[in-house]
Amino acid sequence: MNIITLSLKSLKRKRTRAALTIIGVAVATAALFSLVSFSVGYDRALKKEMQDSGLQMLVSTEGCPTEAASLALHGGEITKYVDEKRLTEVRSIQGVHVATGMLMFSLTEEGGKTSLFSGIDDEIRKLKPYWKLKGSWFKDGSSIILGAEAAKVEERTVGDKIYFPGFDREFNVAGVLQRTGTEDDGFFFLPLKTAQEVFHKQGKLTAIGVNVGDPGRIEKVKEQIEELPDVYVLTADQMMGQILKLVGSSKTLMFAVLAIALIISIVGVLNTVLMSVMEMVKEFGYMRCVGAAGIDVFKIVFLETITVCLIGGIAGALGGSVLSSFADSFIRSVLPYAPAGKMIEFNPVIFVMSIFFAIILGIIAGVYPSIKASKISPMEAIRNE
């Protein structure tokens, strides 16, 4: 009877204990797969969101650049605003290809429903050439354009009317955006002047989005904009850096929890295998009596440990892949800022790496019990009779 057969027979005799150990390893592996996938996917999704925004620079008021960057991408409200005069001044700077004013606001109605609004001007279309519109652009101050998801939720299409009791105003749906896969899908877009009127922010902007075309001109144009009073300028790279810094503590906390889970998993496997070795002292002693070497006993216990962790690793990696949507939603709920798009997607490299890590876990947990088992002598088996 070979060593592999002996290891498998040992596992079959302790099915319940083996199953519980496999579940523990699977949970730890699934968590590892999800968090590593998230860490890789978050940066990718954020970079894509920045590219889709068309922004090379964001001009906000002094004191809240990170908040303005977040709102420019995701919507909401801000406590400080940019004077609309700055928009004209930015547009007059040599090298500025596009400068568009934005006013972001949210409206919470009875029942807790929150709607996101964005006041925009015609220049936004140059930043977002991928926008495909069913219907037309704004016809007048009472026109509204709906993102794809907003139109779906409100059950409105081109030509319909939509009423917002929060500011007692009815609008005509001039157009509906085709789905973009970005945060734009959930917005209600108003003409900038109309948004300033209904939200009582005349002459105010959340931020100014700037595109200079040639990336080589960014720093030069940035320096000129910074000469304007009461403004703060962030480049796209700086916006990414600010947002990554904002979520850095959350990432650190999640990986700290993962580290604790992995340590607990190692201790659990170690404890299970040690108990198994203690229960099989007599059996290992008899094996030594009939000629088995210590290395043979070592291989049996070690292979048993690796098998349990391998099965748990495969199950955990598969489980993490299947439950990626749930993990994505959960992680979004605990992050201060989450980009649009899926952050956790199946990645074959991370999948294999997670299984390999489970095997490493088995190696760490299996060495000591295997050495202990290999040192059992025939005399110990006799003493346990």
TrEMBL record:
It is a multi-pass membrane protein. The chain crosses the membrane at residues 20-42, 253-277, 297-326, 346-368. Pfam families: FtsX, MacB_PCD. InterPro entries: ABC3_permease_C, MacB_PCD, Macrolide_Exporter_MacB. One of its GO terms (molecular function) is transmembrane transporter activity. It is found in: Cell membrane. Belongs to the ABC-4 integral membrane protein family. This is ABC transporter permease.
